[in-house]
Design brief:
Elements (H helix, E strand, L loop, with lengths): L1 H14 L7 H29 L2 E8 L6 E7 L9 E9 L2 E10 L11 E5 L3 E8 L2 E9 L4 E5 L6
Antiparallel strand pairs: 1-2, 2-3, 3-4, 5-6, 6-7, 7-8
Helix pairs in contact: 1-2
Length: about 160
């Protein structure tokens, strides 16, 4: 609570709402403000990297070159040994056609290019995504923007 008050006073002193005449107090408040801003930037950067940063895992292009399917990891896996957040993004020359977000049970590991298989069809693309601790899942992204998913009946080892 004291840090919040000190940061508030430092902020208002910097923008000129509060006039502080003692140079020592002004210097201390400037240091507190600099430390607070540094901590906020570091915390924001770590949060972004852990939860929101997009990691390109792999991509696949249709036979005619009109569509591209991207396999992306979103953020870092949940700690410890949690799910990995991922998504499939279908794009054409004008932008994103379809997007499907999902979790992969991969024992806390990142998803890898070997964790998916792609098959291009006449009106859709099918991607089978595998994880170490889950059955395979079939994701279908249609060229009209619709999506579907099905749990496949395979045995986990």
């Amino acid at each position: 609570m004291i840090i919040v008050i000190a940061l508030s006073i430092a902020f208002f002193a910097i923008i000129g709402c509060i006039e502080i005449k003692k140079p020592v107090v002004r210097g201390i408040l400037a240091i507190v403000a600099a430390i607070g801003i540094t901590i906020a930037v570091c915390a924001g950067s770590c949060t972004y990297a852990a939860k929101y940063k997009i990691h390109e895992v792999a991509d696949s292009t249709s036979q005619d070159g009109k569509y591209v399917l991207l396999f992306q990891q979103v953020g870092d896996p949940d700690w410890p040994f949690g799910h990995t957040h991922a998504r499939l993004v279908l794009k054409d020359g004008t932008g994103t056609v379809a997007k499907n977000s999902f979790d992969v049970a991969n024992d806390g590991g990142n998803v890898l290019p070997d964790d998916w298989q792609v098959a291009w069809k006449e009106d859709c693309v099918e991607a089978v995504v595998s994880g170490e601790e889950q059955s395979d899942t079939l994701y279908i992204l249609y060229f009209d923007g619709e999506t579907d998913s099905y749990q496949l009946e395979n045995e986990m080892e």
